[in-house]
Amino acid sequence: MKKVYIETWGCQMNFHDSERMLGLLKEQGYQEVDDPREADLILFNTCSIREKAEQKFFSQLGRTKHIKKRNPYVKIAVAGCIAQQRGENLKERAPYVDFVIGPQNITRVGEVLEYDGGVFTEDNPRLADIDLPAIRKSPVTAWVNIMYGCNNFCTYCIVPYTRGREQSRPVDSILKEIEELTHEGYKEVTLLGQNVNSYAGEVSFPGLLRLINEIEGLERIRFVTSHPKDLGRELAEAIGDLDKVCEHIHLPLQSGSDRILRLMNRKYTYMDYLEKVRMLREAVPGIAITTDIIAGFPTETEQEHKATIRALKEIQFDGIFAFKFSPRPMTRAAEMDGQLPEPVRAERLKEILSLQDEITEKKNKALEGTIQEVLIEGSNQSDPHKLTGRTRTNKIVNIKIDEQIPAGTLLRVKITEAHRHSLDGVPVSSTD
Ligand code: 5AD
Ligand code: SF4
Question: Which of 196, 310, 326, 350 has the most C-beta neighbours closer than 10 Å?
C-alpha cells in the first residue's frame, strides 16, 4: 500500500477537495498517514485568500525539503489555490515540488500521479459533470459540492482567478450523492459553492433545496456561501418552509459603507443588505445570521470604518469572520491607490472583533435555559465525558452525559451555560 500525507488550509471547499482527492487516491491504492516522513506522497492543499494563509503554507513546504533529501523517492504535490495562482513558478521557487495541481484539476489526481511530475492548471469547464469519490472525516455530516467557481470578481478576491468560472452540478448527480450518503447513515449535508444562490442547474437554488428536502433519512440541510445580491424572497421562504433546511445563513457583508461596497464591486448597498436581513428574519423566526467583514480596504476612512461598526451594532450578527485587507495578486484592489498602513488595518480589525465578541456572547447568553435540537457529531476531543454537536443555528454545544450516545443522534438539549464560542448543555428526556 502506498501512503499519502495530506495537509489542508483554507475554506470548506478546500477541505472537501481534500476529501475528494483522498477518495481518488484510495482508488489508486493509497492510504492516509499522519506523519509526512512515512509518506510516499506529500500533498498540500493550499489557500491563497490572504497573505497569511500563503505564508503558513510556504513555511510548511520548506520543512518537506529535508524529508525529500533523506528520501528522494517521496513525491511532493501542491494542490489548491496557491497551486493555480503560482503554476510553474512554484516549481522554480521550490524545485523539490513534483506536482502542481489546480483546484479545477483534482478530478485528475489519480491519473497525473502516474507521471514523474508536472503542472496541471488548465481550465476544466467539465468539472461539474464529473462525479468524484470522497473519503469523509465525519460519519454524520457531509459536504456536497453543488457548484464550482465564481463569476463575481469582488475587487479584493483571488478566487475567480484560482477556481475559474461558475459551473453548476446537475440536479440528478447531487440528489444521487445525497441519497447514497443517507443510506450510509449521514444525517446532515452542507451544500458547497462559492455563491450557492446563483446555482443554475435544471432548477433554481430554492428549487434544489425543495428536492433535497424530500430525501428520506436526511435530517438537516445547510449551505455556504450566499451572496447578498442574489438572495431573494424565494430562498428566504424556502429556508422558512422546508423542515430540513437549518435556520442559519452565512451572508458576507464585507463593509457597512456604500462607497467601500461599490469599490469592492459587491453590487448592493448597506440598505439593500439590511432589507435582506429583515426579509430573512421575517420569513425565518430565530434564524442565525453570520457574516464576513474586511477591515481597512484601500481608501477606507475612519468614518467609513465606523459605518461598519454601526452596521454590526444594528444587525447583531450571531458571529462574524473578520480579516485585515490583504492585497492579492491579480486583483483590482491590490492596485488601488490609498492602501492603508498595516497598523491602521490591525487597529480597525481589533475594534471590529472586540465589539462582535460582546454581541456574540450576548446572543449566546440569550439561549441559556432554552431547549435546542442538537445533532451529535461525536465525543468532545478534550473531555470524553462530553459530547459535541451543533444546534440548527450552527452553534457548537458541549453536552455532559452519563451514558454514551452514538454520533448521528438528534438530541433535545437544555442549554445550561453560554460561552463566547460554544454552549454547554444537558440532555432532556422527551417527557421534560
Ligand atoms: N483580504 C482580506 N480578506 C479577504 N477575503 C477575501 N479576500 C480577501 C482579501 N484580499 C475575505 C472576505 C471573504 C472571506 C472568505 O475572506 O471577507 O468573504
Ligand atoms: Fe477557498 Fe478562496 Fe482559499 Fe481558494 S483562496 S482555498 S477558494 S478561501
Answer: 196
Q: Is the CB of 159 under 6 A from ligand 1?
A: no
Helices (H), 39-169: 51-70, 81-86, 88-93, 109-112, 159-163
Q: State pLDDT tens for residues 255-293.
A: 999 999 999 999 999 999 999 999 999 999 999 999 999
Instruction: State in words which class domain 2-120 has.
Output: alpha beta
| Nearest ligand 1 atom, CA 327 | 10
Q: What is the mean pLDDT of residues 209-238?
A: 97
CA–CA distance, 141 with 18 (Å, rounded to integer): 16
Q: Which atom of ligand 2 is nearest to the CA of 53?
A: 3
Tell me, using a 6 A CB cutoff, whether residue 322 lines ligand 1.
no
The SS3 assignment for 50 reads coil
pLDDT at residue 29, rounded to an integer: 95
**Which ligand is the nearest neighbour of the Cα of 331?**
1
Give Cβ neighbours of residue 278 (< 8 Å, ≥ 6 apart): none
For a substitution probing ligand 1, which of 11, 157, 332 has the most ligand atoms within 8 Å of its CB?
Answer: 157
Please tell me the distance between residue 236's alpha carbon and the centre of ligand 1 in angstroms.
25
For residue 160, which phi and psi values (nearest 5 degrees)?
-60, -25
Min mean pLDDT across 96-100, 127-131, 428-432 is at 428-432
Under CATH, which number does the domain 127-365 receive?
A: 3.80.30.20
pTM across the whole model? 0.96
Pairing of strands 423-427, 319-324: unpaired
Q: Which range has the worst mean pLDDT, 123-127, 260-264, 332-336?
A: 123-127
CB-based pocket (< 6 A), ligand 2: 10-11, 13-14, 47-49, 80-81, 158-159, 162-163
- Judged by average pLDDT, the poorest of 72-76, 82-86, 112-116, 224-228 is 112-116
State pLDDT tens for residues 45-64: 999 999 999 999 999 999 99
Distance between Cα 49 and ligand 1 center (Å): 6
CATH 2.40.50.140 fits 371-427, yes or no: yes
Q: Is the CB of 297 under 6 A from ligand 1?
A: no
